[in-house]
Amino acid sequence: MAIADPAGAVPDLEAQVSRALPVDDTSLRVALLEDDEVDVMAITRGLSAAWPSGVDVRAFDRLADLENGLRRLHPDVIFCDLAVADGYGIDLLRRVVAFAGPTPVVVLTRSDDPAFPVLALEAGAQDYLFKGAYDAELLGRTLRYSMARSRSDEAVRQLAFELKVANADLEECLGIMAHDLRAPLRTGRLFADRLVALTDPGDGARPVAAALDASLDRMEAMIERLLRLATLRDGDLHPVDEQLSAAVSDATADLLADPDLGQARVEVVRDGVVRADPALLRALLRELVQNCIRFRSPDRPLVVRIATEALGSTSSITIGDNGVGLAPEYRERVFRLFERVDPSRDGLGFGLALARRIVELHRGTIALGAPADGPGLESRIRLPAAA
Questions:
Q1: Domains in the chain: boundaries
Q2: For residue range 219-271, what is the model confidence (pLDDT) as tens digits?
Q3: What is the C-alpha separation between 16 and 199, in angstroms, rounded?
Q4: What dihedral do alpha carbons 112, 113, 119, 124 form, nearest 10°?
Q5: Domain 162-234: which topology?
Q6: 6-158 has which CATH code?
Q7: Hey, do 6-158 and 235-384 end up sharing a CATH topology, with the first three levels equal?
Q8: What 8-state DSSP symbol labels residue 130?
Q9: How many CA atoms lie within 13 A of 278 on its CB side?
Q10: 235-384: CATH number
Q11: What is the DSSP letter of 103?
Q12: How far apart are the first and last CA of the chain?
């Protein structure tokens, strides 16, 4: 569950990157993997012209020598030829990137393959230069851009790691709290049940005991939902392709059995294949249909219409009803944990938070809007398309 928000850290991140960059009036340390002496001299001259305050270039003609050298050197940037005695091509680059750590790697090449730059960047290089086709200005720009990108990437990785740790700690704390609360809560329910049993129907204490039991029951339900939210993770997903109508039938089998719902019905108006974890898809559909039931109109029988459609690399699921609807200013707020727009209606403030969590685990999106053909509310979901 994504609990922490990294947005506020962006200004500090920019400042951190700025402070980490070498400036023109400081000497630059460069490690160079190159086995051609002419190319070593050419890149050294170019770097000296591009960085007037001084460049310390340490050249290595073998990959093994570069790896050993980096254990004692701390270069600002690594320039890497992709053809030396003990390494070649993209495989060599991957090895350099692996032991370079946060140090930016700039590739030197003579290849005219248009696919090569993309392959080099995908392998972890920050930039590339064609041998013999650079001048001091291009070298200087490459140095600054590659170091800036590398520092920024490293800062983002660190921030992502810290966010992951913080979220894991918070989720563990939520799980422990919810688990430890269940024991005294069940004891309280046991005593409430005994109070109900010990009081006479006409005794004034009977409704008090019943109200206490109902409140404890509600709290236990909240804890169960909190536990479920806290323990949902990416690793829980086992997506398969299946007909939406089958999942809808399973998810709503018992929801419409309540006689108080009258002629309420759920219709799949456009069926299709969706890709999702079967259990989580049913939980998602159940939460959204329950929300439709909760906000049904007293003036007409509830009708819930569900449809799916393939949209390129994604598929859509829409769940629309003819209920009382929801004002636009609440359509984002209701996805927050414990948010209840209308406290007079049944609900714990977990349903839509859980729905969004399930959708986000599938790398999808969910939003609420008004149906195009009448009153009510429509849930609009986008998921990666079925295979």
A1: 6-158, 162-234, 235-384
A2: 776 666 666 666 666 666 788 999 999 999 988 877 776 777 778 889 999 99
A3: 68
A4: -10
A5: Helix Hairpins (1.10.287)
A6: 3.40.50.2300
A7: no
A8: E
A9: 9
A10: 3.30.565.10
A11: S
A12: 27
